[in-house]
Amino acid sequence: MAHIVFLTGAGMSAESGIPTFRDALTGLWSRFDAERLATAAAFRRDPAMVWGWYRWRAARVMQAQPHAGHRAIAALEAHGHRVEVITQNVDDLHERAGSTGVVHLHGELLRSRCIDCGAGEHPDPIVRPPADGAREEPPRCAACGGLIRPGVVWFGEALPVQAWSRAQDALAACDRVVVVGTSGLVQPAASLPALARALGKHVLEINPQRSGVTEDADEHWALPASEGLVRLLE
Ligand SMILES: CC(C)NC(=O)[C@H](Cc1c[nH]c2ccccc12)NC(=O)[C@H](CCCC/N=C(/NCCC(=O)O)S[C@H]1O[C@H](COP(=O)(O)OP(=O)(O)OC[C@H]2O[C@@H](n3cnc4c(N)ncnc43)[C@H](O)[C@@H]2O)[C@@H](O)[C@H]1O)NC(=O)OCc1ccccc1
Ligand SMILES: [Zn+2]
User: Fold this and answer.
1) What is the pLDDT of residues 193-207, one digit of tens each?
2) Does 116 sit in the ligand 1 pocket, CB within 6 Å?
3) Residue 98 region, left (φ>0) first, then alpha (ψ -120 to 50), else beta?
4) Cα(35) to centroid of ligand 2, in Å?
5) What percent of the chain has pLDDT over 70?
6) ipTM of predicted complex
7) Which of 55, 99, 138, 217 has a Cα at 20 to 30 A from 121?
8) What pLDDT, on the 0 to 100 scale, is given for residue 163?
9) Distance, CA 220 to ligand 2 centroid (Å)?
10) DSSP per residue, 70-116
C-alpha cells in the first residue's frame, strides 16, 4: 500500500462548476483583483461587499457536487492506501467525496468566525443564493458584537500553523506526490512541490496547462483532474 499526498488547487474543483479564483470575479467584483478583495483591509473598508462576495461563492459551493476526480482520491483511501489531501481550496468537495483528514491551507468558506474575539459562528443558511454583485451585511458576533468574517486565509495573513506543519510532515513521510490544478503562484503553498522534489519524492502534476509547478514535476499529465485522477485507479 502506498502513502500518497495530493496537493490540490482551484483547478481540482473547476469541473464541479466552482469558478477558479480568478474566474470568481464577476459583476460588481469584476472591477477588483482577487488579491485585493480577499484581504482584511477590503473587509474593514466595505464589509457588506466582501461578505456578499463570500456568500455568493458559498452558494456556488453548496450547489456543486464532487466529480469523478474527487471520488477517485477518496477511493484510493478506501482501497487501503494512506492518502493525505492538502488543499488550497476553501470548498468542502473533497470531504463530500469521502476523503478524510483534508488539510485546508487557506481555510474553509463554510466556516466563519468573529473578527474580534474569534468565536466560531454559523451564519444563517443561504436561503436564496445572493445575486452576483449583491452586498450583504455580515452578521454580528453573539459574544462580543464584532463582525463575522469568512473562515478563509486572506492575502497578507499567515496560514494556520497546524495546517502548514501537517503539510510539511505529510510530504516528509509520503512515497509520492500528485499535484492537481494549481497555477503555483500563491506562496507559501506554491513552494510545496519543490519541497517534495527536494525530499526525493516522485512528483506527478495533473493540469491541462503547464503551470508554475511543471518545472518541479517528474511527470506532467496534461489532463483535466477528473480524467487524470481516475487514471490513477487503473
Ligand atoms: C498572488 C501571490 C503573488 N501572493 C502571494 O503569494 C501572497 C504573498 C505575497 C505577496 N506578494 C508576494 C510577492 C512574491 C511572493 C509572494 C507574495 N501570499 C499571501 O499573502 C499568503 C496567504 C495566501 C492565501 C490567500 N488566500 C487564498 N484563498 C483563500 C481566500 C479566498 O479563497 O477568498 S489564495 C487562493 O488563490 C489561489 C488560487 O490559485 P490556484 O488554486 O492555483 O488557482 P488558479 O486559478 O491560479 O489556477 C488554476 C489552475 O488549475 C488549472 N485547471 C483549470 N481547469 C482544470 C481542470 N479541469 N483540471 C485540472 N487543472 C485545471 C489551470 O490550468 C490553472 O493552472 C489559491 O491558493 C486559493 O486558495 N500569506 C502571507 O504571505 O502572509 C504573510 C505572513 C506570514 C507570516 C505572518 C503574517 C503574514
Ligand atoms: Zn466576537
Assistant:
1) 999 999 999 999 999
2) no
3) left
4) 26
5) 89
6) 0.96
7) 99
8) 98
9) 46
10) HHHHHHHHHTT-EEEEEE---S-HHHHHT--S-EETTEEEEEEEETT
Read off the pLDDT of residues 178-195 as tens digits, 9 standing for 90 and up.
Answer: 999 999 999 999 999 999
Q: Using DSSP bridges, classify how beta strands 107-114 and 120-121 pair: parallel, antiparallel or unpaired.
A: antiparallel
Establish whether the linkage from the previous residue to 224 is cis, with ω within 30° of 0: no
141 among the known binding-site residues?
A: yes
Whole-number Å distance, alpha carbon 113 to ligand 2 midpoint, is 8
Is 193 within any annotated ligand binding site?
no
Give the confidence band of 27 by pLDDT, cuts at 50, 70, 90: very low
Pocket flag, ligand 1, residue 43 (CB < 6 Å) = no
* pTM metric for this prediction: 0.94
Is 88 annotated as belonging to a binding site? yes
For cell 480524467, the residue is: 227
Q: Among all chains, which residue has been given the C-alpha cell 489531501?
A: 85
- From 155, 214, 226, give the residue whose CB has the most ligand 1 atoms within 8 Å, as the site to mutate: 155
Please enumerate in sequence order all residues whose Cβ is within 8 A of that of 66, keeping only pairs 6 or more positions apart, or say none: 16, 93, 94, 96, 97
What was the pLDDT predicted at 28?
46
Ligand nearest to the CA of 209: 1
User: Catalytic residue positions?
Assistant: 106
